[in-house]
Write a structure and sequence with these properties.
- With 499 residues, the protein is an alpha+beta fold.
- The chain is built from 13 helices and twelve strands.
- The strands form three sheets. Strands 2-1-5-4-3 form a five-stranded antiparallel sheet. Strands 7-9-10-12-11 form a five-stranded mixed sheet. The chain has a two-stranded antiparallel sheet with strand order 6-8.
- A hairpin with a 5-residue loop joins strand 11 and strand 12.
- The radius of gyration is 50 Å and the shape is elongated.
């Protein structure tokens, strides 16, 4: 996590390293698979056409099923009204006072009605002239009440109209002929023309609908293929309807996120390669000086110590990279136990007080008199604390303080504990705090402005704290610089569930 110390023994001049050009990193993975071969009936166009044609067919059939019963009922109503008019006429004829005229006129009317397939029943004194008429109808007419509707006559359902006459007489007409002969057959025969028109309309509408629906899907598929091929500049036009717009927005957001992620990855790799090259260059220079005999016997110990320091720096960088790579893996080693954070801070004080004093930086601890219990991995938390203190010592000017504090997270011991590292350095802006724990983000911002490390330390610290079930936050310190607060749990269950 630390920046390498300058060589103490006059290393050989470094060989200028040419600036590495920034190149686009290739997309790792297999080439995108070719689009699947289209099969008849499986495309959106074919299915849309089939659906619209089926809708047209169903619409025609439903229309026929609804229209035919309505037409039958309308025809029956007209036949009922016509039969009622004929029944009134027959009653008027039979109401003539003269018997002989009445019989002659009545016989003539009966023959005319029967010629029209209308059965005529004459009721005299409550007795019907021939069988077949229901007794209820006869009794109702004999009682002087009219009858209208459908009844069972001679074993068949028929339209019935009965008119009562004085003295228990009356006349009843019935008709069993269909309301519209052959109606169903004519309707079914006439369906082919609207059905053909409906299918043609469904074919046209389905083609237009499928083209309208398939266009944004094809556009999105093309954009996705370009994204998988490594083109991060692709964007999909945002067009209605809402579902298509949401798809376009999602793809555009994915492309922007991939471009940002790959840009950060590229910058991170470039910065890490620079950090790795720095100690390697120093080690190579000293090794060449030793090989060429430039370094004398009296300078050899100092040179060895410098090379050892650079090798240790290189080893720390490699270990940080490996830890970051394994941090999310299931086999990342953690050994959590009950820990007193106050004692851990006191142990760190003995190490860091001398280091800070050597560069003129006052080191102060804020430790309570009672234990601060937490359940964590002491080695990993010490690694986090050392990394935060090293970052603070790197940027703090002489005379500005560095503070390590430990305190309970709350009045309840089960709430866990808090470790805090504060400094009086330049601190962070609010924008810096939002990206403080992203790999290489602060390194990229402040490289060349102030002393920076590899950009791995804060990312590694955040990952370690999260794996241990804790929380880490960056803020502004009352000393004027940055403050990093680590909250650790006292419950082992939180560590198990955070893995």
């Amino acid at each position: 996590m630390a920046e390498p110390a300058p060589p103490a023994g006059g290393p050989a001049p470094e060989t200028p390293v040419p600036a590495q050009p920034t190149v686009a990193l290739p997309v790792i993975g297999a080439r995108p698979a070719p689009p699947p071969r289209r099969r008849p009936g499986r495309t959106l166009t074919a299915r849309a056409v089939l659906v619209t044609c089926a809708v047209a067919l169903v619409s025609v059939l439903v229309t026929a099923l609804v229209a035919v019963p309505l037409a039958v009922r309308g025809a029956e109503r007209r036949d009922q009204e016509a039969l009622a008019a004929q029944a009134r006429l027959a009653a008027d004829v039979l109401r003539v006072s003269r018997v002989r005229q009445r019989d002659a006129a009545g016989d003539r009317l009966i023959r005319q009605l029967r010629a029209q397939d209308i059965d005529v029943y004459v009721v005299r004194a409550g007795t019907v002239d021939r069988a077949g008429l229901p007794g209820q109808v006869v009794n109702r007419v004999a009682e002087g009440r009219n009858v209208s509707g459908r009844r069972l006559v001679a074993g068949e359902r028929a339209l019935v109209e009965g008119r009562a006459l004085p003295g228990g007489d009356g006349v009843v007409l019935s008709s069993t002929r269909p309301a519209i002969p052959g109606l169903w057959g004519r309707v079914l025969l006439s369906l082919w023309l609207p059905l053909l028109a409906g299918l043609a309309a469904g074919l046209a509408a389905g083609s237009l609908l499928a083209r309208r629906l398939a266009h944004p899907i094809r556009t999105a598929a093309t954009a996705a293929a370009r994204l998988s091929a490594g083109d991060r500049s692709v964007r999909v036009p945002v067009e209605p309807p809402d579902e298509v717009a949401e798809l376009a927005i999602a793809l555009n957001g994915l492309a922007a996120a991939l471009a940002t992620s790959e840009g950060r990855q590229r910058e991170f790799l470039l910065s890490v390669s620079h950090e790795l090259r720095t100690p390697l260059t120093a080690i190579r220079g000293y090794a060449e000086a030793l090989a060429d005999g430039v370094v004398g016997a009296d300078e050899a110990p100092d040179t060895g110590r410098t090379m050892l320091a650079e090798a240790e720096h290189l080893d720390r960088l490699v270990r940080d990279l490996l830890a970051l790579a394994r941090l999310e893996a299931a086999d990342f080693p953690l050994e959590p136990v009950a820990v007193d954070l106050a004692r851990l801070a006191a142990d760190a004080e003995r190490t860091w007080a001398d280091r800070c004093a050597a560069v003129g930086v006052p080191f102060r601890t804020e430790i309570p008199d009672r234990p601060v219990p937490a359940y964590t991995d002491p080695g990993r938390i010490r690694q986090v604390v050392d990394g935060l203190l090293e970052n603070a010592l790197r940027v703090v000017p002489p005379g500005a303080p560095v503070v390590l504090a430990a305190r309970p997270a709350g009045s309840d011991p089960a709430a866990g504990g808090v470790l805090e590292v504060r400094d009086g350095g330049p601190g962070f802006t609010d924008d810096d705090l939002a990206v403080a724990f992203e790999r290489g983000a602060l390194h990229q911002r402040y490289r060349g402005v102030r002393k920076v490390g590899s950009g791995l330390g804060l990312a590694l610290a955040a990952g370690l704290v999260r794996r241990l079930g804790g929380e880490i936050a960056a803020g502004h310190a009352p000393e004027g610089g940055a403050a990093f607060t680590v909250r650790l749990p006292a419950d082992p269950y939180l560590i198990r569930t955070s893995r």
